[in-house]
Amino acid sequence: MRGVSVAGWMVIIVLAVVLGTAALRVIPAYMEYSTIKTAINGLLADSKVGLQSENEIRATLDKRFNVNNVNAISARELMISKDSGLLYIGFDYEVREPLFGNVDLILSFKQDFEKHIR
User: Fold this and answer.
1) Which residues cross the membrane (predicted)?
2) Into how many domains does the chain fold?
3) Could you tell me if residue 15 is inside a domain?
């Protein structure tokens, strides 16, 4: 039984470095996405959110984003609407992370939230 050649090991090492670098670039963007979702879900869990105006909702989310150091999107970029007993909050944004040279990773995040309000 023969082992892996030196050239084979070099290919494995290069692939591991590229994938490791990509993971280090992608993980913070997904953590920030999770923070944004948590902030919005926390707001929607508040029983008084139905009484707030769209501007008040944006101000509340802006404070939550600032506390959690969210930089990918601001509260004014969220789509917020109230219509016939339904509160809708949505976002759609992209994060571009440089990988190496002129190669970038582009991550697209889109999420919609709805809550029935009285």
Assistant:
1) 6-27
2) 1
3) yes
pLDDT single digits (tens) 30-85? 999 999 999 999 999 998 998 899 999 999 999 999 999 999 999 999 999 998 88
CA–CA gap between residue 66 and residue 35 (Å, rounded): 11
What is the domain range of residue 98?
6-116
Q: How far is CA 97 from CA 1, 2, 18, 57, 93, in A?
A: 43, 40, 14, 30, 13
Q: What is the largest CA-CA distance in the chain?
A: 72
Helix (H, G, I), strand (E, B) or coil at 24: helix
How far, CA to CA in Å, does 42 sit from each of 45, 55, 84, 116? 5, 17, 22, 15
Give dist(CA 118, CA 105) in Å, integer: 43
Tell me: pLDDT of 1 over 70: no
